[in-house]
Design a protein that fits this description.
- The strands form 3 sheets. A 7-stranded mixed sheet has the order 2-8-7-6-5-3-4, sandwiched between helices. It has a 3-stranded antiparallel sheet with strand order 9-10-12.
- It is built from 12 helices and 12 strands.
- It is an alpha/beta fold.
- It has 2 domains: 125 residues, Aspartate Aminotransferase, domain 1 (Alpha-Beta Complex), CATH 3.90.1150; 237 residues, Aspartate Aminotransferase, domain 2 (3-Layer(aba) Sandwich), CATH 3.40.640.
- Helices cover 42% and strands 14% of the residues.
Length: 373
């Protein structure tokens, strides 16, 4: 098997799996319980929160455990918007965001009367700072942008964007860092809210995080027993939280090593793609090496199906939207043609891949394209 769809999800790290299973067997009590077993669970949960806080250089009070980036994105976007709607009802995002962001803004726009500005993407797949400058105004209360695009790997200039946003005292800045955390080196120190998922980093599905600065208040989406500082009620799955802390620690420790390996894979992949007539590269070398997006001269769905039958796995676009529309909204936002946006392949790699796998993929891709009339 050759798996080149790591942006959709990643295989579970055996070390993390072992830790999780040991925890669930030995410490199963509710961490909110006052008896000794419950307090042992609570202590482990606190240690996990403190470890994550140290990795991000934030206070443990700013670490909110969630079920994944979709929940974190919704919690940040809706939580800020509904909490601060008396300050203003203008929100900013881009046309190239993940569906969990775009659909959250759509709901706020259609059901709560917010005005949303959707910034276009340039040919590199990122926003233009001048567009953001024009969009910001005194009624803006939130700007939410992806750090590293899940379809193309394009990396927004987070530091410059943050400086622009914070020129407006009412505005908060949220980033979806799901494809960036543990992979590319970015400065998150002045971001107000940050979302991520564990399963993009060889951790567990159903586990995520929202970093929320102390100066930001949120309207909770869930009401109940007051867990997660009254922001996310419900019994904590503390073994997943401990596993997340370990997932992030490993990712941060190995980030540089893994980046260097994957960057070599990217350069080799792009070099081999140039051997195929009609291939159009949609990703740039300025983006993340983990994701390479290109358009085919033939129908992408047919090609990916043929590759799958050969035990080679890639995707046509984001796994969260691939079944809903044949065309990539990200590539369309970049100005790509309908044909190119509908016939793109996303190859997403990890440190687990090898050069020989890239060669096997390219050789099979050549054969399949040549066989399609």
């Amino acid at each position: 098997m050759i798996y080149l769809d790591h942006a959709a999800t990643t295989p579970l790290n055996r070390e993390i799996k072992q830790s999780y299973e040991e925890l669930t067997e030995k410490y199963f009590a509710n961490p909110a319980s006052f008896h000794r077993l419950g307090q042992q669970s609570a202590k482990l949960e606190t240690m996990a929160r403190e470890k994550i806080a140290s990795l991000f250089k934030v206070s443990p009070l700013e670490v909110i455990f969630t079920s994944g980036a979709t929940e974190s994105n919704n919690m940040a976007i809706k939580g800020v918007s509904l909490r601060y709607l008396k300050r203003g009802k203008h929100l900013i995002t881009s046309r190239g965001e993940h569906p969990s962001v775009l659909n959250a803004f759509k709901q706020l726009e259609e059901h709560f009367g917010f005005q949303v500005t959707y910034l276009p993407l340039n040919e590199k797949g990122i926003i233009e700072l001048e567009d953001l400058k024009r969009a910001l105004n005194d009624e803006t209360i939130l700007v939410s942008l992806i750090a590293c695009n899940n379809e193309t790997g394009a990396i927004n200039d987070i530091e410059s964007i943050e400086k622009l946003v914070h020129q407006y005292p009412k505005a908060f800045f949220h980033i979806d860092a799901t494809q960036a955390i543990g992979k590319v080196a970015l400065d998150y120190s002045k971001v107000d809210l940050l979302s991520l998922s564990a399963h993009k980093l060889n951790g567990y599905k159903g586990s995520g995080l929202l970093i929320k600065r102390k100066n930001v208040d949120l309207l909770p989406l869930l009401s109940g027993g007051g867990q997660e500082y009254n922001l996310r009620s419900g019994t904590n799955n503390f073994p997943l939280e401990v596993a997340l802390a370990k997932t992030l620690r490993i990712a941060f420790e190995k980030q540089k090593e893994h980046y260097e390996k994957v960057d070599k894979l990217r350069h080799h992949l792009i070099s081999r793609l140039q051997e195929i007539e009609g291939i159009k590269l949609n990703s740039t070398l300025e983006g993340s090496p983990y994701i390479v997006n290109f358009s085919l001269p033939k129908k992408a769905s047919v090609v990916t199906e043929a590759l799958s039958s050969r035990d080679i796995y890639v995707s046509t676009k984001s796994a969260c939207s691939s079944k809903k529309s044949p065309s990539s909204h990200v590539l369309k936002a970049m100005g790509k043609s309908d044909f190119d946006a509908s016939n793109a392949i996303r190859v997403s790699m990890s440190h687990l891949n090898e050069i020989k796998e890239i060669d096997i993929f390219i050789d099979n891709l050549k054969e399949i394209i040549a066989s399609i009339k």
